[in-house]
Amino acid sequence: MTTMPLGAQTAVRSTAVAARATDLTKVYGQGETQVVALDRVSVDFRQAEFTAIMGPSGSGKSTLMHCMAGLDTISSGSARIGDTELTGLNDKKLTRLRRDKIGFIFQAFNLLPTLNALENITLPMDIAGRKPDQQWLDQVVETVGLSGRLKHRPSQLSGGQQQRVAVARALASRPEIIFGDEPTGNLDSRSGAEVLGFLRRSVRELGQTVVMVTHDPVAASYADRVVFLADGRIVDDMQAPTADAVLDRMKRFDAKGRTS
């Protein structure tokens, strides 16, 4: 009898929307010092899809992720996670939203050195007073390849292993969406490839939704889709990206910057 691979039910790409920005604008400062970081950005991030956000320095890619994740306020427009509108939520409701519906993976691993890997993975749920779904937790730990390292503290793990703990922590509570801010920026190429492979597996096998900000065309090639920003606006949307295609697109940004 043929065994169906884990998560085969997610093989068909979902058309449901995990997060949506509509005419999202973010302005910093006033008067002569005013900077428009995001200029009426509208974009959907679909469920069970891996999206990379790219653009030149100062294009607004990190600002877009922070606004969508409820880490920064927006000046006008709309940002939604699932059916929840972020605009107007007070600090308590935003904290609950981030805790219950959003996972985060940062460039700095943000692990507590006094806790072992398993304790770091379950920490957000422990703080919320929720018990993890043991079957799901076991599946996540197996997916990221940490089964033999759960009792180790961060100082006993390599950089790649520490970031895998951070990935597992983001996945463990089954959030509606995971946001990654340069999650492989502090890793060597081999460790970075491992983490990106785990993120891609979490989408394809666990049905997770991942949105990642990166400057690396190779990292972007692990995604299903790349959204390109320039000057606070979306200027391109690439499906099934390759590293060469992404690099070519970024070179055109550089060429425009030199001639403008």
From TrEMBL:
SUPFAM superfamilies: P-loop containing nucleoside triphosphate hydrolases (SSF52540). It holds the Pfam family ABC_tran. Keywords: ATP-binding, Nucleotide-binding, Transport. GO terms for molecular function: ATP binding; ATP hydrolysis activity; transmembrane transporter activity. Coiled coil: none annotated. One of its GO terms (cellular component) is plasma membrane. It comes from the Bacteria. Residues 19-256 form the ABC transporter domain. This is ABC transporter ATP-binding protein.
